[in-house]
Design brief:
A 5-stranded mixed beta sheet has the order 1-2-3-4-5. 21% of the residues are buried. By secondary structure, the protein is α/β, with parallel strands linked by helices. The model has no long low-confidence stretch (mean pLDDT 90).
């Protein structure tokens, strides 16, 4: 699920998801949404597909509408995956994404370098280096899912 206006990077995500889905024998379906009514219609339609799961892309629109998305995912018994750890406390099954604190910390170092006279155009582009996995076992139980203990052991946060 994504909003094309607030997630212009989504074609790259879709390409990566599709490449990963093949070996897993999974099918990827893009759900572009632009308002609350489209969110409800998309999730309701998607929920009719057996054994589906929802990946909510990390973008401002999805963040703003996350409570509606989470409520609909619970209503339709869809496992939901988000890009930020903090959301798992609100109900989604899993999150996997960059450590937001680390990203901000590293951004502060860039700001410091710029304030000391370095030109922004000369600074290298950086990608996140630390990723976090969070699992909500309460949600897993509600969905009737067994999360492998090896995955639970690797999680940075486990909600029980």
């Amino acid at each position: 699920m994504f909003n094309p206006q607030t997630a212009p990077y989504y074609p790259g995500f879709l390409r990566d998801f599709t490449a990963t889905a093949g070996p897993l024998a999974a099918e990827v379906s893009a759900m572009p949404v632009q308002d609350a009514a489209e969110i409800e219609a998309a999730i309701t339609a998607f929920a009719r597909v057996a054994e589906g799961g929802l990946i909510a892309t990390p973008d401002p629109f999805i963040n703003t509408h996350r409570r509606q998305i989470m409520a609909l995912a619970v209503q339709h018994r869809l496992p939901a995956i988000y890009g930020f750890r903090r959301y798992v406390r609100e109900g989604p099954l899993i999150s996997y994404g960059p450590d937001a604190v680390d990203v901000v910390r590293r951004s502060a170092r860039y700001a410091d370098r710029i304030l000391k006279g370095e030109r922004p155009a000369e600074l290298p582009v950086q990608s996140p280096v630390k990723y976090e996995l969070a699992i909500n076992l309460k949600t897993a139980r509600a969905l009737g899912l067994d999360i492998p203990q090896t995955l639970v052991a690797r999680a940075d946060e486990v909600i029980e």
